[in-house]
Write a structure and sequence with these properties.
Oligomer: single chain
Structural class: mainly alpha
Low-confidence stretches: 33-47
Number of helices: 6
Distance between the termini: 24 Å
Length: about 110
Amino acid sequence: MEKEKEIIRKVGEFLRFLADLIETSPQLILGNDKLANTVECDCSAKSLDLLHILLKEGEAGLKQKLINLKMNELKKIIADHDFDPEKMAVKWRKKEKLINLIMEKLRVKIVKK
């Protein structure tokens, strides 16, 4: 029963986050596809764009877009969003590690909202 309550609580948090996101960015509902392409063509994408892709295409879709980016582009996204305040990712040499950091930080952002 406790596990079910926790799931219900998390779903409620997510729906509140989603409602806030839609209210502040109605283009998400209106179908502005430019947002979905921001990560592919503009490395200075805002976290809203990353969240939009995550919500629209899921983790697999976002991960696929990130895989197509170069190492320096992934590091720029991490820096632009302050995903690594300790600056540890600057030294990383594996794309997978950078992508995992981005995905982890976005998951935390969704849960916090």
